[in-house]
Amino acid sequence: MSLLAQNIIIIVDTAFLGHVGEAELGASAIGGLFYLSLFIIGFGFATGTQILIGRRNGEKQFTSIGNYVDHSIYFLLLLCLLLTVFSYNFSHHILGTILASEKIFQLSIDFMDIRIWGLGFAFINMTFRAFYIGITNTKYLTYSAVIMALVNITLDYLLIFGNFGFPQMGIQGAAFASVVAELISSVFFISITLLRVDRNKYKLFYFPGLSLNVIKKIFNVSFFVMLQYFFSIFSWYMFFIILEQTGERPLAISNILRGMYMIFTIPIFSLGSAANTMVSNLLGENNADHVIPTIKRISKISFLSILGLILFGLLFTEPFISIYTNDPSLMMETKAPFYVVLGVMVIFSVAMIIFNGVSGTGNTRISLLIELVTMLIYLALAYTLAVIFSLPITYVWFSEFVYFLLLGVLSIFYLKFGKWKYKVI
Fold this sequence. Notes:
Elements: H1 2-18, H2 22-58, H3 65-98, H4 102-115, H5 119-134, H6 139-161, H7 171-196, H8 199-202, H9 212-244, H10 248-264, H11 266-284, H12 291-315, H13 317-322, H14 328-360, H15 364-388, H16 393-396, H17 399-417
Helix pairs in contact: 1-2, 1-6, 1-10, 1-11, 2-3, 2-4, 2-5, 2-9, 2-10, 2-11, 3-4, 3-5, 3-9, 4-7, 5-7, 6-7, 9-10, 9-15, 10-14, 11-12, 11-14, 12-14, 14-17, 15-17
């Protein structure tokens, strides 16, 4: 439910901007993925924190948990400052170098220069997410995400089109709406934690002096997760850059598909987070023999859950695409690659669970290696299909099959033969 509400933000942004213009639709993908590339670095650190919290929760060492949360906030706020400075000084140059369309470049910059101000609030939110998932109490994530989605949808409607006397800001309105939504979510998390959580049990928000040893401990787990997530999003970002080289229409189609991805992957990523923290808790309880059966069970749930969404997509293809555009030719050209995406979901639903199980063991160096190998083969194939052979976009999207098939096979190989049962973190 939490991921559903959060992904509604991306879905609604894409749907609204799809009715503004193809250039705005494409630019929101480029600007949004550039922001996500920065966001995901902090998300990797928070995931490392989540793994440690899960392990300490399984060991019943509750008083250690608050210290991890407090130091995660220290680190992520500093990281936010550095990434914001980086964005303002280098994003213009980076995007100007790699984008072929001047219009998409300018619109992407318009989006990024506002969107980056939400990064600090997003980092605070992900720290709370790590805490609540780590202690296996996730209901507040749902409440927060629903609030965030409602705020974002309302402001998108008012600011993108200038309804009810508000300024018509276009793509900048979408960015501003997202920043305010993340701010409201941070206020909610802080308030509900102060009111409802036993802070003494976890020694939460004690904010002791900065301990480099605690940062180092989190970083030892998080560093490779940060790199792994960065390369994962970077590969997705470069996939869109490759498509941008082929024209505005393929990029617009792919951003529509990205919005659909956000819907279909909700149960997969949710169950992936569950697999990650359950593996960590099981190892903390010295129940390593239960890890593989647990991953198998979660994989089956993920596979079955996605079948219903795939059937829904097949039955209501045109109404689904019409959410994002009312251009008949754009709708028609989106159909074939949409069916490819539905097919990819079958492999995705199992591979992502197994891969999250690998991360949950705490051996994040291996998960990074798996991600790197998969990413390089994926991008090489996408570039070959799109640029060298100039194949239609439908064929380019087939490279997603290769990505998730490799991810799953390499993860299974490690869980079967790797030495992960006694990994100390």
